[in-house]
Design goal:
This protein is an alpha/beta fold. The chain has helices at residues 2-8, 24-39, 82-97, 124-129, 148-154, 185-189, 227-244, 280-301, 320-332, 347-351, 378-403, and strands at residues 43-46, 52-55, 63-69, 105-111, 172-180, 193-199, 201-210, 214-215, 249-258, 264-265, 268-277, 304-313, 316-317, 339-342, 357-362. The longest helix has 26 residues, at 378-403. The chain binds zinc ion. Residues 69, 80-81, 114, 179 line the site of zinc ion.
Length: 404
């Protein structure tokens, strides 16, 4: 917790925490974490994508990687990302102090870029690790006209060697990301820590209801083709779908009305829908039903319907075996084993393409994140460390058993 406080001081702004990819304060963070690793006899290095890697040995044993991201949003809280790296460090210290022998090496990672704030391109660090980094991204510019390539170079990284960041030839037994929940479920369940079942898939779509503008005082209701009234009916249907479907998050957070004048019957309304669920089939079925409803509403009201799907991102299931061990570890430590899906994206989504991946969520106050009020209780962090440590022992025993 103290370390999260220390790292929160390394910011691009004086009065707020903002630490973007390859910014000068990221250098300070790397130096600070490097010194903490050194204190326990570990070495740290920065790869060609600006990720911080901490390790202890060069022996060719399988490794379990623990970590999260070190970049932040603008005006961020102290724990989003950073906490997962600090818990990795705490685990390394605990293994050392307790002289625990595991069937694998534990390694730590602090991803360079997850939030996508500086270049509008998230997951630069983890994509390099799993070889899905798109080299086109190197040319992308920030608001000052600096490209990703230039930013990496000025950070001391060699962008032409980004391929070397790959873990393809590594013997990886797993990747575990501990992250604050960024939602209220664990608080509602009264659980300090939960295992993540899957990272929810997402549908984003734009739906337009086009009618005809008219005078608010002269056009009788039977003759109206009110685009906004149609959209309003649809928004209610989206909410109803979310309430009725277990585990579905269904939101309309963006409405554009034309002409948006109080004494004119709206000619058109464009709404943007966001649907998330850990099961792709449930999400697709909900989307199909909503499309049919939109079409019925438009038909009944004499509106022209336009429909565009902007994103159709499948859910990412967490590794069953590692997640089972983590669930057992939660029970071992005396807590209720809960499993929840993540509605937000994480480096784990990318890492799961190459490495058996799982996540633990830590309860955060009021579900607040991406805000200076972000808060976690020390007791919950202690629980997370104990659970992860216990989980690693279980994974180790499982590995040994599978070898004999
Ligand atoms: Zn995060």
């Amino acid at each position: 917790m103290d370390r999260c406080e220390v790292l929160a001081n390394f910011s691009e702004e004086n009065s707020a925490l903002t630490r973007r990819f390859c910014s000068p304060p990221m250098k300070q963070v790397h130096k600070e974490i490097g010194s903490w690793l050194e204190a326990i006899g570990w070495t740290s290095e920065i790869d060609a994508a600006g990720n911080l890697l901490g390790h202890n040995t060069n022996v060719d044993r399988p490794a379990v990687l623990i970590g999260s991201h070190l970049d932040t949003v603008r005006n961020a809280g102290k724990y989003d990302g950073v906490l997962g790296v600090m818990i990795g460090l705490a685990i390394a210290e605990l293994i050392r102090e307790s002289k625990t022998e595991l069937a694998f090496d534990v390694e730590i990672i602090g991803f360079s870029e997850e939030e996508g704030v500086r270049f509008d391109s998230p997951y630069i660090g983890s994509s390099a690790i799993v070889e899905c980094f798109d080299s086109q991204v190197l040319g992308q510019k920030d608001e000052d006209g600096i490209t990703v390539e230039m930013a990496l170079e000025s950070f001391g990284c060699n962008p032409t060697e980004i391929g070397n960041a790959s873990f393809a030839n590594r013997n990886m037994a797993g990747f575990i990301e501990v992250h604050i929940e960024q939602g209220p479920v664990l608080e509602m369940e009264n659980c300090p820590v939960g295992a993540v079942s899957a990272i929810a898939g997402q549908t984003r779509a734009t739906i337009g209801f086009e009618g005809k503008a008219g005078h608010a005082g002269t056009v009788p209701h039977v003759h109206r083709r009110d685009g906004l009234a149609g959209a309003a009916e649809f928004i209610s249907a989206v909410e109803k779908k979310g309430r009725e479907t277990d585990g579905l998050f269904a939101t309309v957070g963006d409405v554009r009305v034309e002409p948006n004048v109080s004494n004119v019957v709206p000619a058109s309304a464009i709404v943007r829908v966001d649907l998330r669920h850990e099961s792709d089939s449930v999400r697709m079925m909900a989307w199909q039903a909503l499309k049919e409803l939109a079409s019925q509403i438009a038909g009944r009201r004499g509106l022209i319907l336009t429909l565009e799907t902007n994103l159709n991102q499948p859910a990412v299931q967490m590794d069953k075996e590692i997640t089972n061990y983590l669930m057992k570890a939660i029970s071992d430590c005396g807590y209720k084993p809960v499993q929840i899906p993540s509605g937000a994206g994480h480096d784990a989504v990318i890492m799961a393409r190459m490495v058996p991946t799982s996540m633990l969520f830590v309860r955060c106050r009021d579900g607040i994140s991406h805000h200076p009020d972000e808060h976690v209780e020390e007791a919950d962090v202690v629980a997370a460390i104990k659970i992860l440590f216990r989980g690693l022992v279980r994974i180790s025993n499982g590995l040994l058993k599978s070898r004999t």
